[in-house]
Write a structure and sequence with these properties.
Elements: H1 14-24, H2 32-35, H3 39-53, H4 58-67, H5 71-78, H6 90-110, E1 115-121, H7 127-138, E2 148-155, H8 158-166, E3 168-169, H9 179-185, E4 186-189, E5 192-195, E6 203-207, E7 219-223, H10 228-231, H11 234-247, E8 248-255, E9 269-271, E10 278-281
Parallel strand pairs: 1-2, 1-7, 2-6, 7-8
Antiparallel strand pairs: 3-5, 4-5, 8-10, 9-10
Helix pairs in contact: 1-3, 6-7
């Protein structure tokens, strides 16, 4: 054991880190394959944690997890990988603006509704939900003045939601936004860019874990990208898929991350083409 807060760096080799993650992740309902490329991030977090606790290596940390089960809560939080930016996977947002949102707008209008209801699951610092708001207001929303876009943005991390509420970002987070839209939606504040209030009005931020506290819906559009179908264990993925389907309206659309796939099994979701991870819920017979 090292002294808590000492300058000595705990010993965590890459093989030791891999072995630890392969042991720990399934106990959290997570899967090793999703963390393979980001294990360096977790290794740094674990090294800082061991240093804080005065532990020499991961064997000592495993002993602590056994002796103090509450430590699993820290480990689960450390396994969250909040990588996001505005208009991430720009081709997806182009398809949303050109085809998906207009179709959902027509369906909402035909049903006598005045809103399109969306859910951004795992919203991190709000970039995805606010991207949707910018896309709607400066894109197809101009053709549907009687319709509003409402987006519920949820994340398990309260700190991330706090930053989302401030809605100010570095220039790197905005690099994929078309420049005219960036200028229309943001105002410079020092080295940050803050979203104008009118683009925040339809966004509701709420702390929730998709595995335990999914909102009731129903939704026309759900974005669950680079979360459940990357990091969760297969059994948890199947549970989440069912939950998402139950909360989509017939004809509604589910959006995954570019490198994600739905788990095998029956589901009323039809791929919307071969190259983008968009799925439409089948209409009722």
């Amino acid at each position: 054991m090292t002294a808590p807060g000492s300058d000595a760096q705990p010993a965590i080799s890459d093989p030791d880190c891999v072995a630890f993650l392969q042991w720990a992740l399934p106990r959290l309902g997570l899967r090793w394959a999703g963390y393979r490329k980001v294990r360096g991030t977790l290794r740094k977090r674990l090294r800082r944690r061991l240093r804080l606790l005065g532990l020499a290596d991961l064997a000592a940390y495993r002993a602590r997890l056994a002796a103090r089960p509450a430590e699993w809560q820290w480990l689960e939080a450390a396994c969250r990988i909040p990588i996001s930016r505005f208009f991430r996977d720009r081709r997806v947002f182009e398809r949303l603006g050109q085809q998906v949102l207009p179709a959902l707008a027509r369906a909402a209008q035909d049903a006598g509704r005045d809103t399109i209801d969306a859910w951004s699951a795992g919203c991190a610092c709000g970039e995805e939900a606010y991207s949707l708001a910018v896309l709607w207001r400066l894109g197809p929303g101009r053709d549907w003045p009687g319709l509003k876009l409402h987006c519920l943005a949820t994340d398990a991390d309260a700190g991330m939601l706090g930053r989302a509420a401030v809605a100010c970002y570095g220039a790197g987070s905005l690099k994929d936004i078309p420049p005219p839209w960036r200028d229309a939606a943001f105002v410079a504040a020092g080295d940050r860019f803050c979203l104008r209030p009118e683009f925040r009005s339809g966004i509701c931020l709420r702390q929730a874990d998709i595995r335990q506290q999914p909102p009731p819906g129903p939704f026309d559009l759900i974005l669950c990208r680079n979360l459940a179908f990357t990091y969760f264990a297969p059994a948890v993925q199947a549970m989440v898929q069912t939950s998402l389907c139950d909360r989509l309206r017939p004809g509604g659309v589910l959006v995954l991350g570019m490198h994600e796939q739905l788990p095998a099994g029956p589901a009323p979701l039809v791929p919307m083409g071969k190259h983008l991870p968009l799925y439409r819920k089948a209409e009722r017979p």
